[in-house]
Each structure stands twice: as C-alpha cells, then as structure tokens.
Sequence to fold (269 residues):
Amino acid sequence: MRPSPANRDIQALLDVAIDAVIIIDHRGIIESFNPAAESMFGYTASEALGSNVSVLMPEPDRSAHDSYIARYLASGIPHILGIGREVDARRKDGSVIPVALAVGRIRDSDPPRFVGFLHDLTVRRRAAEEQQLMRERMARVSHLATLGEMAGAIAHEINQPLAAISNYALACQRLLKATDPGIAEIQDALTQISGQALRAAEIIRRVRSLVRARAPRREPCDINALIQEVSALIRSEARPQGVQLSLDLADGRRRQRSTGSRSSRSCST
Fold:
C-alpha cells in the first residue's frame, strides 16, 4: 500500500528536520524516529522503533516515564505538554547530553499519540561554560593586577617609616661617637624610631584588617576613620601622579589636604 501524499510530505519534513523528532503512542512506544534523532542518540530507526521512549532517558526519568503517561491518561491534565524545557537525554553509548525538549499531543489521535522535538544543547552549554571560565580567568587577572598595585602602594607606605628609622638610627650612631654625645638628641632620635616603628605596624594592621577573610557582619562604625584608613593606602599612589586628595570629613574635623607638586586634578571623598 502506497503512502498518501500527505504522509509523504510529513515524512519529507521529518527527514530534513535538523532537530530530533520522535513520535510515540499512548504506551510510550516509539513509532517514528527521524534521521536527526538517529544522529543525536546513536540508534538507527530500526533499533529505536518499537522500543519504549524511556530508553532515551537517564534515571530517574527513565523509571518514572510510564507513570507520567499513565497520570496524563487518567487525569487529562498536561504537565509537560506544550511547555519547552531543558532535560538530560541518554545516548546509545550511555553518555548523557543536555537537550531542549518540547512535547505535544497529536490532534484528534485516539488513543493519544505524542510528538517530541529535541534540540541538542551540548555546543551551547559548552560555549556558556567556556565563557564563564573566561570571565573567571579575567577576574583572576584583574584581581592579581589589583593586588600588584596595592602591594606597590603598601610597600611605598612602609618604606617611609623604615627609611626614617634607618636615618634616626644612623644619627644615634654618629651622636654616640661624638666626644660629648648629646643625650637629649639621642633620646629624641630614639623616640622618633619608636614612633616610626609604630607607624609601620599600624600600616600593616590596616592592611590585614582589609584583606582578612571573615564572614560579613553589620555593625556601627566611624565612617571618618574608615575613610582615613583607605585614604592612607591610596595617598602614596595619588602623590606621584600629581593628584590632590582632599578629605572633607563630618563632625567638625579639620579639612585635610595632601597636594602633589604638579597637581591640577583632585578627587574628594
């Protein structure tokens, strides 16, 4: 018996469709399996026809699929019909691939028959994963660059008190070698050494408090003190660039200004 022209047209459409098209009956048995489905799942049409469509599903859907159909036949309430969604599909070799699935009931079929359209999302998902990986790499590069800039600023800040300590220590040595060492001057130099050491320790403390990993928490804080801590770290970077950093703090505190030698730019907080 020759197929009707309408059936030949439908078969021609199935043959050239780029997406997998699978038709099943009310028991879940595969009745039609187009060439794109063969390519997607690795089964030939002769292997797939007559099999339960659950063979194309991984667990737990594989074991539950018959109950899904039975529920629809009993209630008439569609749960996935007409709704596109992303699911996992199982190929003949056992590998699992992501697919976009749309299922519909064939009109006027009794008992009901269903047609499913499946589009392989493997390439799209791999591209999305590669984009995410690239974003993470760029974030790490940016983070490292920021750390490098911050390390340079911190080194500059710490070098200042270290240089002062070295100069005061050398001054103490010279004074002690003198015939009549000035005790007051030596005491003042030692006081300066102590002060500069405390200054270096404070810089390190501020940096550690900024980078310490801890769970975020909300608590009252002195916003002026916070701004001053941050400005201390960026001031060493602003000065060589000729940038004027101005702090206009609340509570009647005096306006503080650090001016570069060639500054015509400014930023204020």
In short: Strands lie at 20-24, 30-33, 85-90, 96-105, 114-120, 243-247, 256-258, 265-268. The chain is about 50% helix and 15% strand. Residues 253-269 have pLDDT under 50 and may be disordered. The first helix runs from residue 5 to 16.
